[in-house]
Amino acid sequence: MSFVPLVPIGDTLGTLVDDRTAAEQRAALAVLEDRLRERRVEVHEGWGAAYIERVHKKQKLTARERLARVIDPGTRPFEVGTFVNYGDVFPGDQKSPGAGVVTAFAKIEGRWCMVIANDNTVASGAWWPRTPEKIERAQTMALRLRIPTVYLVDCSGLFLPEQSKSFPGALGAGHIFKMNSLLSAHGVPQIAGVFGDCIAGGGYMPIISDRVYMTEQAYMVIAGAALIKGAKSQKLTSLDIGGPEVHVQQSGCADVRVPDDVTLIECIRRDVARLPSSGADFYRGGLGPIDPRFGDGELAALLPSDHREAYDAKQVLARLCDQSLFWEVMPQVGDEMICGVGRVNGLYAGFVINRQGLVDDPEHPGKQRPSGILYRAGIAKISAFSRACNDDGIPLIWLQDISGFDIGTEAEAHGLLAYGSSLIYTNSTNTTPMFTVLLRKASGAGYYAMAGLPYDPIVQLSTSYARLSVMEGRTLAIAAYNTKLDDDFQILATDPAEREKIAAGMRDTEARIERDMDPFVAAKQMDTDEIVELGELRAYLGALVEMTYQNTGSRRIKNPRIWSMHDLAVLVGGPR
Q1: Does 473 score more than 80 pLDDT?
Q2: Greatest CA span in the chain, whole angstroms?
Q3: What is the mean pLDDT of residues 209-236?
């Protein structure tokens, strides 16, 4: 069967929420997204205007100015890891906005690339705690997608006062060079531009790249002039030791010397243009991207800020998929889950999303049970769908708003542990590209089972509503103080002072957990890759899906005539 039965889904906003509710929900989200935009601007400024001016006085560009020049005109970068280290304070009362490095997907000469740029306004591009992990995470994304990697290097080496937190360990700074090697081993093009300081690890970072450019201000050294002066009493400049005269003309560690930043960026663009073009248009089959019938700007009015309130999950899909067309697969089973196929940016992608509200209980006819929870049929359904996407080479998007697994004697008797293990195995062994979005709740083992970050999606995005935790604050406080509570969760102690101590402890625990569920906490410690506005979610997903179709021959992509998805639909609900 070659026909993919995409059908219209979705309704106009006015039929879903009244004007007052829509306005209230927009206002609630606006507060959070204003905070997101303010903090994004704060990170983008690095150490501020004085340090930007210092870079300019050296006749150099800042990292974000270089990024803006290297991307195609009229396009935007899709940054990841913006809020790594956000709010952390290091020795000397210093901060490291974005961990001192910019990592972003960017379209260069029509090809999606991963750009990794040291922020030279933050301690001259030094590597702070989590900087290596952020760079390695970006390299891993590039490796998984097989997209070219561009390094804009301007790095003064480790931030030495905190070297114990970034030098050793399995993901310490040296692991960056292993990732350089793995990218090379898998044939992923790497292009490096060296714009200034490149000391120690910063000097090693570009070397394995296929092409290395240096400006006349740049140098690459294992040890800088100050260290050599101290160790060997030799008076040299770092340019004398490892400038372009040395590494282009003598050592061969770099390929080309150029006069300045602008020329180097033009050279990088020229090199990317020589690479194979994207296969995305081939896989579109002549179809271009078409906006949904219902704009993604309406998502702000649809999603309640209170995670306990329900909404129609299909309406979310209608505002993400091209033309609001969607093929729901296996709708006859597992009502609490919706899975199926739609186009994003003209390309096929699979979607899995948690239904919200109440659904019929197949185990108890005539009764209902809450959605946003994984039950036996729903787990089996999305596990089979995930395997089918993997078999057919369809990229898979997980949209999480989940409270966890079903619990209780009936759930255990139904073998939910085994069903959940099957889903976890499926998502752990899939090779098709997977992306995860935390819409609101991402709780307990449900977060894991639906391809949460520990199960290796290529990118995990969070909205400003996202709440990532084992369980909600009040529930966790009760669990933590369970031995001091009766069966109705009331405090057992009769002494007033002891009762107040327990009550205060429960309040403090609940408040701390609520603070920890802030998406900026997750982003700071790299438990999510990026926080995005609801209105830019479709753009992010469109870019990511297009990347999965760019590099032909790196993975199996079956044409729709031979999708196993068709067989699955017939076996579950088709003609007998």
Answers
A1: no
A2: 87
A3: 71
Cα end-to-end span (Å), the chain: 16
Q: Is 140 exposed, middle or buried (0-12, 13-18, 19+ CB in 10 A)?
A: middle
Query: How many structural domains comprise the chain?
Result: 3
Q: What region, left, alpha or beta, does residue 207 occupy, with left being phi > 0 and alpha being psi -120 to 50 degrees?
A: alpha
8 Å CB contact between 381 and 359: no
| Domain match, 17 and 105 both | no
Q: Same structural domain for residues 332 and 386?
A: yes
Give ∠ CA 519-524-525 in degrees, rounded to 5. 105
- For residues 54 and 31, give the distance between their C-alpha atoms in angstroms, rounded to a whole number: 35
- Please tell me the pTM assigned to this model: 0.93
Going by DSSP bridges, is the β-strand pair 404-405/373-374 parallel, antiparallel, or unpaired?
Answer: parallel
Tell me, yes or no, whether 355 lies in a domain: yes
pLDDT digits 0-9 by tens, 230-257: 444 455 676 777 787 788 888 888 999 9
Q: Could you give the CA distance from residue 21 to residue 2 in angstroms, rounded to a whole number?
A: 43
Provide the b/e sequence for 161-186 (b: ≥16 CB within 10 Å): ebeebbbeeebbbebbeebbeebeee
Range of the domain at 309: 1-44+283-465+528-569
Listed in sequence order, the residues at least 6 apart from 1 whose beta carbon sits closer than 8 Å to its beta carbon are 561, 566
Helix ranges (DSSP H) in 430-484: 444-449, 473-480
**DSSP bridge partners of 7:** 326
H/E element, 530: strand 530-531
